[in-house]
Amino acid sequence: RMHEQLKAKLAHLRESLSSIEQLDEESRSLLSQLDEDIQGVLAGQTSDDSLDSRIEQQAVQFEGKHPQMSAILRDIMDALSKMGI
After folding, report:
1. What's the CA gap between 42 and 64, in Å, rounded?
2. How many angstroms from the chain centroid is the CA of residue 8?
3. Is the dihedral of CA 12, 15, 18, 19 positive or negative?
4. Dihedral over alpha carbons 73, 47, 35, 74 (to 10 degrees)
5. Predicted TM-score of the model (pTM)
6. Alpha-carbon distance 64 to 45, whole Å?
7. Which residues fall within 8 angstroms of residue 51, CB to CB, at 6 or more apart?
8. How many other CB atoms are found less than 10 A from the CB of residue 6?
9. Which letter does DSSP use for residue 48 in this model?
10. Backbone φ/ψ region at 84: left (φ over 0), alpha (ψ -120 to 50), beta
11. CA–CA separation, 26 vs 37, rounded Å?
12. 74: CB partners within 8 A, 6+ apart
């Protein structure tokens, strides 16, 4: 169940990414990398101890300009922690 919820949140993140036009390339790249890393963790291929702090860092960066993205990232962090990741 949590996997499905997390996948839905990631899909929401991707949708939001594509709809934000003012997002700079570095942020877009970092978010894409986070997405890939989360997918890897979900698939059991990797364990990433820094994942949580990187997601938090991005959420803080988006707080002012893109609060919706920040909220999605925090939802993803919450879901990961509930899964013990």
Report:
1. 29
2. 11
3. negative
4. 0
5. 0.81
6. 34
7. 34, 37, 38, 41, 80, 85
8. 22
9. -
10. left
11. 16
12. 59
| The token pair that represents 23 in the structure block | 């997002």
The amino acid occupying position 46 is: T
Helices (H), the chain: 2-19, 25-42, 51-62, 67-82
N-term to C-term CA, the chain: 15
Amino acid at 1: R
Q: How far apart are CA 47 and CA 60, in angstroms?
A: 23
- 7 φ/ψ angles, rounded to the nearest 5 degrees: -60, -40
Token pair 């698939």: residue: 43
pLDDT at 84: 81
- Position 37 scores a pLDDT of 86
- What's the pLDDT at 45? 67
Run means of pLDDT, 10 residues per run, the chain, 85 residues: 84 84 83 86 76 89 87 91 82
The token pair that represents 68 in the structure block: 């919706």
